[in-house]
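Morning run. Coffee first, then this:
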Amino acid sequence: MNVVVIDPRAHPLYEGELDLRYRVLRAPLGMGRHQVGFPGEDAALHVVAENAGHVVGCVLFDFTSGRLRAMAVDPSLQRTGLGARLVERLEREVTAAGVRRVRLHARADVVGFYERLGYLQTGEPFVEVGIPHRALEKTW
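And here it is:
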């Protein structure tokens, strides 16, 4: 399995990334595939895990907002360490670009995952896309 950075404007794995994000993040909430992207996505850092040409994990960093966005891992590979590998690669890439703080909005059920990676909760719980979330951040 390879963890690579892709350019969403030109890389053939981008469609697979969108499909994974839809299946893992939006379809379970009853949302449409058109609700997968976000403004400025073309300028974001896209880190994907691919296995035999199929995207099995992804995470994005939006430089404009300073946020980690759209973390998704194929359900069959969750709890295998792949998510941590994706976040660690993202952190190395943004550090090389001069970033020293990453913020994110995590679904309440995955807050522990980010805390194990050194992220700290900030602020009060809130609802986003209809489900409970927490804000977290990590500074180095």
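The domain at 2-99 is CATH 3.40.630.30 (Aminopeptidase). Good start to the day.
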